[in-house]
Amino acid sequence: MAARDKQGRPVVVVTGIGVVTSLGAGKDENWKKLTAGESGIHTISRFPTMGLKTTIAGTVDFIKADPLCAPVLSQRLAEVAAEEAVSQAGIGKSFPGPLFIAVPPVEMEWEQRIVVAKTSGANGTINYDDLLRASPKHPEYHDRFMFGSVADNLADKFGTRGSPISLSTACASGATAIQLGVEAIRRGEADAALCIGTDGSVNTESLVRFSLLSALSTQNDPPQAAAKPFSKNRDGFVMAEGAGALVLESYESAKARGAKILGVVAGAGEMADSFHRTRSSPDGRPIIGCMHRALDDAGITAAEIDYINPHGTGTPENDKMEALGAQAVFGERAARIPMSSNKSMVGHTLSAAGAVEAAFTLLTMQNGKLPPTINYAVPDPAIPFDVVPNQARDASIRYAISNSFGFGGQNVSLVMAREPA
Amino acid sequence: MTEAAREGVITGIGIVSCLGEGLDAHWQKLSAGETALDDKNLAPYIVHPMCALDFDKQIPKKGDQRQMEPWQRIGVYAAGLALDQAGLKGNAELLSRTDMIVAAGGGERDVAADSAILSALQGAANPDALLNEKLMSDIRPTLFLAQLSNLLAGNISIVHNVTGSSRTFMGEESSGVDSLRIALARINAGQAEIALVGGSYNAERKDQLLLYAFGDELLTGSYKTVWERAPDGGLIMGSIGAFLVIESREHAEKRGANIIAKLSAVMSERSKRDSDPVAPSLRTMWDKISARVKPGNAAFISAASGAEPATKGERAFLAEHGDIPVRASGSYIGHGMEPIFPMNVALAALTLSRGSLFPPRDASGFEKPMSGPLRQAIVTGVGYWRGEGMALVEAA
Asked: What is the ipTM of this complex?
């Protein structure tokens, strides 16, 4: 393999992968369950769900966060994934490059708001003046609810270089973190980058927000059957938590230190959609353009793609538009290229999804096995694709594309390649 | 490709603050040493309020305006001004390949809804059930879209049709520094030709002030310029919208764009604030550009926040360069968090384009008068809590 790609840029390889989802912590457990078609979706026990339309999620309950709030849990999940990736890469205690981390928006939650209201001692009507008056008694909330705090703590823990980048492109965030790392290495700014997507934000209000937008599945029973990407009876996504971490390196640097190369991030593409805040342009142009740009960036044609790791949320709109996009990009091959949605098992890990699914795509190529789309009982005739229904199967994949789309017209696609033997 | 062809130039600026809208209004107020304050509505805190804006001018559809909270409207407005000045507005071909990096914080709470819920929870027999019920009934479904950090960028795509790419950086002041740093690095490296970069901040929000009040970071009492707030320090937040169009010189010249200033370098650092004050990281960045700086025709445009000890550290660094006059824009416009660094780069480009530095606004005497022509501005940005940045902006 050459150290430079067709455009003369440094080839960017993956030397460390870490992942945590509702299926478990670590690649091994996730891969075992993913290929066994197991679901991590369960009834929510973290907070009371009475009166809510959706009562299920893929929360990560086996990793403790204290106090339990989105930034603390998001940070813990990111630490677990990054530790696994960094340790696999064997790149040392002080990470020799920048940190790019996709995090959910950081904000004070109801638990804290209620605590501060109590501290204020106000009776009857409570307003923000009361909270402001009580604020000096809660200095601990300052550091915790700064947007940069998760990245700041991770930069300290892993010794990454320079100013850590916290980013959001909504549900495409994890893929954007990887794209930024690829670009930094290609510019020669760094030989390595730590790219993470994390999300531990399943709480009452975040669930209500998505619920009010009618984005979530309400088929609560049984929870494992709710996420049904590409099925005719799909009715929304299932919120979930997790983190994915990749150690990216220039091929040259990985080779020089004798690191095992796990895969290649061959290209990245993005295109914003100006149609609507939550809906895709009906002609699918931005989704199509995004995939084309990723293929162009990787210097390959659509004919070379052997596997599509779709965004595949299981909302009626997403899956329809993604299928339309894939049909336009891959033509008559679209029906034959396997395209399986990890979200059928781990749910939608939101800010983490792009990174979690990039990690799964790399494992898919490495192991030569396609994880299934589970809960596929009622095929949607409008999506006549090979979704790898319900059962994993073997396949040799040279190139795969992973799509991530988000509210606000965010579209990012990553093209990954298996490291040739 | 030559290095000169890949250098970054600023071809569009959109700024709004308490000083007004656009470059002329800002220059007029800076030259006159004037600011605007609101010490009543959010007392005991002081803010620099946003000037009156006719949002219809940049956001023609009322439906779009309704979908946004003030921080987004301010940002979409400022972005529109920048695109207008750069001659991009309505040019579908150029906009389809304009990259966008937005520095954003969190969206706005519905303060009235929050207050009503907190009040109702008091003494409720089953507070958990009530919270769920109130959240399902009291939150506007579209409020979420006004809260998501990346929906400022999303609204810019929708209203102004910027669709090349869309990335949102978060993390207080550093997000503004790194937005510009990465946009410029991509242009310098040939990964991009043209980018819209910036952000917005609405200071006139109690929910936002609460975050900084937890850290006892806000100034109370009477107004002081940023250099006069030591030793206790304190932030006066300011509502700000600031966007820049930056592009490669070659791209700008080919399309006949007016070059306002040259963006020669943008750097960021993160010092460990507990053990390591900010001055060393400012020195590290300074060392990368100092050979290019010519005292006599250069000035520091400081984004100092007035928070301590951050401002003390910055002042120590600036004092090492007594031959280069300093201006702290925060004394005029307040501290605007995520967009504050892009705003200061915009003000640096503005003052360079007028050829001279605006007068001091500082009774402590730290800001010295400058009479000669101005050719270079070094922008310093020290986060009140984390992160440092520096930019070199030069006359076109």
From this structure: 0.97
